[in-house]
Amino acid sequence: MSVSHDTIIQIEIDDSGKLHIKPEYEKFIMIYRTATEVHWNTENNTLYSPTPRDRTYLEWFEQIIKVVKEECSCDLYITEQTEWINIPNQLKKEIAKAQQWP
Q1: What angle, rounded to 10 degrees, do the helices at 57-72 and 89-98 form?
Q2: CA-CA distances (angstroms) from residue 72 to 1, 22, 30, 37, 92?
Q3: Model's pTM, two decimal places?
């Protein structure tokens, strides 16, 4: 099975504390079926996690990326154009490091 690739155009922590990841093109409407607590917001076209309880935001970011790759055969990655909203600088650095991005 071939793996598709898509850029992450936005990463946001919303007012309720959920981490949202917005792919540029791909839609993951059925992601809830994976039973991994990763969901799709059809209004904003974002993947999102629950508000962190036992996982950090970095762990949720990694979980979302992993579930999309394993269950949907798509690699998501950040670029210089990725927009960061309400993401602390330290978390941005951790995400960039996890993605092996400069």
Answers
A1: 30
A2: 10, 15, 9, 15, 25
A3: 0.94
Say which amino acid occupies 14. Answer: D
Write down the pLDDT at residue 101: 65
Structure tokens belonging to residue 55: 């996982």
**Amino acid at the residue 1:** M
Question: Domain 4-98: which topology?
Answer: Anthopleurin-A (2.20.20)
CA torsion sign for 71, 77, 82, 88 is positive
H helix intervals, 1-102: 57-72, 89-98
In angstroms, rounded to a whole number, what is the distance separating the alpha carbons of residues 44 and 35?
21
